Amino acid sequence: MRRDDIEKILIIGSGPIVIGQACEFDYSGTQACKALRECGYKIVLANSNPATIMTDPVMADATYIVPLNAERLEQIIAQERPDALLPNLGGQTGLNLSIELAKKGILEKYGVKVIGVNLDAIERGEDRQIFKDTMAKLGIETPRSEIIYTVEDAENVAAKLGYPVVVRPAYTMGGTGGGLVYNIEELRMIVNCGLEASLTHQCLIEESVLGWEELEVEVVRDADNKMVAVCFIENVDPMGVHTGDSFCVAPMLTIDKAVQDRLKDYAFRIVESIGVIGGTNVQLAHDPKTGRIVIIEINPRTSRSSALASKATGFPIALISAKLAVGYTLRDIPYWRDGTLDKYAPCGDHVVVKFARWAFEKFRGVEDKLGTQMKAVGEVMAIGKTYKEAFQKAIRALENGRHGLGFAKDFNRKSLTELLDMLRIPNSERHFIMYEALRKGATDEQISAMTGVKSWFVGQMRELVELEEKILHHKGSVPPDDLLIQAKKDGFSDKYLAKILGIKEKSIRQRRTDLDVRETWHPVPVSGVENANYYYSSYNGETNECAVSDNAKKVMILGGGPNRIGQGIEFDYCCVHAAFAMCDAGYETIMVNCNPETVSTDYDTSDKLYFEPVTLEDVLQIYEAEKPEGVIVQFGGQTPLNIARELSEAGVKILGTSIDSIDIAEDRDLFRHMMERLEIPMPESGMAATFDEAVAVADRIGYPLMIRPSFVLGGRGMEVIYDEPMLREYVDKAVDVTPDRPLLLDRFLQEALECEADALSDGENVYIPAVMEHVELAGVHSGDSACVIPPVSIPEKHLKTIEDYTRLIAQELHVVGLMNMQYAIANDTVYVLEANPRASRTVPLVSKVCNTQMASIATRLMLGAKISDLGLKPKVIPHYGAKEAVFPFDKFPEVDPVLGPEMRSTGEVLGLASTFGLAYYKSQEAANAKLPTEEGTVLISLSEKDPAAAKAAKEFIKLGFNLIGTEGTIRWLAEHGIAGEMIHKINEGRPNVLDAIVNRQVCLVINTPSGRRDARADDASIRKAALKYKVPYLTTVAAAVASAQGIRVARDGAGGVKSIQAYHADLR
Predict the structure, then answer these.
(1) Beta bridge partner(s), residue 10
(2) 920/776 Cα distance (integer angstroms)
(3) What is the reported pTM?
(4) How crowded is residue 408: how many other Cβ atoms within 10 Å of its Cβ?
(5) How many Å separate Cα 629 from the centre of its chain?
(6) How many CB atoms are closer than 10 A to CB 445?
(7) Which of these, 635, 664, 655, 665, lies nearest to 821 by C-alpha position?
(8) What angle do CA 1044, 1045, 1050 make, to 5 degrees?
(9) CA nearest neighbour of 315 among 248, 231, 251, 233
(10) How many other C-beta atoms lie within 10 A of the C-beta of residue 491?
(11) For a Cys staple, 817 with which of 68, 590, 685, 858, CB 3.0–4.6 Å?
(12) How does pLDDT run across 634-662, given as a tens digit for each residue?
């Protein structure tokens, strides 16, 4: 039973959202915090991520939003004196830091016990050599391999094993630093990266099991050594594609019972030997030709797969793991089917499909290619009664403009030979290409040979293609009833059928309604708690198994779907707060979402969860069944907004800001007319559907100009254009540009200071908790720019103007709920850039820095509360919060790591301190770009010679740094009285700037790129080298100035630690 020798537990979060470690750890950590507090423990939480619900002050007794490193954690331990550390809920970050704290003697020094897992046992799982030796003792085969510590060792081992080989660094996640290599050149490059990425400077060189079946078993073990297999996951893509990128199913659909029993036996023996208490993910490979099974790796912690397994089975692994860590056993925890959890076995007649979401389009020059290093930025999960139904639900949940598998991109126009050739190398489009190849006559054997996907899965896809071809014989009309009914049973969406037939979606919906072809809903019972379920739909169910209440006070919240760049965890944060606020107001809450990584899809976030795609078809049927008072669409990002108009036209009551107001804000023409009427300045702009129209607009407003598609989130497709040739290139490449969806062109305000204001409005009165000042100047997307609250350099008169404009616009749009405004200040004038009358990614940031729970308050305003009722008053904020973005450039080494108008960050961190300089310093430290405080050499290379750059250079000289730079920069600095040493450009001789970075002769790189892409080649090499060799690098002059301030303050002491609760107590 419950341990009484501990009272206070430290939990380390996973930090910012990055590829390979996303919001599944927010979900698991939040679940654990709730469970442990319910058990009566005090929780101390450390995490650097402000965007998550996990770092809300209500989730822990003391919440520290700090850089995640051993020094900061020791400060927290010294201050809070926790009795125990639970290390396996914060992903690889939490695990690695726990080991570091133990090895440095910090845990022993402060008497902190480690619970849930033995740290020596973690080494048996994470250290490649110890793991290999442990498996040998257990008689479990691993792929033939050897541990190496140098590139030379790697070459020798690879020669012995034969190419291709797999490189696996120790103590990393998401395949970071590793890969499949086919020759010695690739080996040298990947091993170099892998050794750098590894905590122990250690890699495993392993025989390739490319093409084998990749299988996973999720195991939970208690202190009595009782183990249960929670979930068996089959990866549809074979070995060679990282599990985070692989399309997978649960339960296993093509694996024999005898093989599953062997997998379970191996997994249990491994978990017992490692000694983990709680959840462990075991990954294995099976060769169906020989029957050989080898262990690939284990994750002795909650993982991406454990989030998926939890949602697929209703077994909340993080919650159970937390309880087991504090002394409970599986016998102590209830199980809905057989009394207690020690009797658990996977069950249910549903099939779960997980499909990944990528962002290759965000990174110019990146090859869309999948391998052993994870590239996905998010995922969806779908539940159905059959594989085909669940698969097609997953596809329509992806939010990528596709509602089915056919006619993606131009694949249908390619020949069979071309399609088969495209399948040779795995990429994010392979299943869409397979679909068209089958349509063009490919055999199942051809597809399996090209992709390694098993013939059963190919056969299922073939049946979908054959049904679609029959349906296509009826273009221009609703298909015959028998075909329509079969299409719905096989998962074809109304929207996709309407699209391929060239008819209205409403016509399909009307006909199947007439035929009484509707979704039925079925429960997934939750284990470990009493009387809890969540629900999924099926067109293959016989009876509806979901009881609907007649409660008149009932509200539906639409979630954000899969994480992607531009729409991340911040929107889930808002949805969760909406559910909590509705519950507090006495409403029954209904959540609709399909993202298995998030807190919104936890079983107890809302009164009822529908694990469904956020599409018109699915949402409408839930609405018609539940008959809620209304639906909230403004918290889930662009996903629910995309269907809001159609929902409204179908009779759905939208709560909060009206759809018309949202449309006015999103339609640049309508919004411009509104600004002209209100006499609020905007940069000159125009719209164009053709190149000639674009040239006419450019001639009128002048270059440079900002160009983008209409109706997007995350600045997708945005670019600064400097002349007509660049304009032609952009227009030629633009897709889906029509008179209804034109290109938007705005005059680009050079050297403008950008800022944002978040507001709450009840339709009449407006409350503005904060104005955020961007560190980077105009031209960097707001999601990628560092920013600070409160502002540090905006004059009072401009702050007043910003507040006045925000109030005027919110009132004019009759905003009820949240609004985000973006401004630029140029030539002493405040310009409006855009209005977003919905949740934005800044909501969690403002909420935490200002202690104003914006999403909760907005929800109350939607229910009819008034600003005046809520006692909202202006606050004096005595501290600074500096947000910094975190980027996935290390996953895409061929990409120039430069900032621009299109958002490319995956996550963010927050630095809090009493001064801006220290807050900014902490934000860089949290983003793993710690600024140097010791004197050293700064490499400075300026494309645009900006007077502010001279100021920054002088600051670094005052701080005792030496400057080196290329000829043009050093000559320009000398003209401004600043001394520096000249170094060769890359192609001008040796030693050059790259040599200085590789030899670690510089401790900081300041490299401002040209605005023109065609002039960046030399600069890009400098930035890529800085990234590779982990030298902090800055690409804007504004960041250089802020960094100098940060270094100056940090030299006097890098600051203590202070909980968010303590910061909030200081607000007046």
Answers:
(1) 44, 85
(2) 13
(3) 0.93
(4) 18
(5) 32
(6) 10
(7) 665
(8) 95
(9) 231
(10) 28
(11) 858
(12) 999 999 999 999 999 999 999 999 999 99
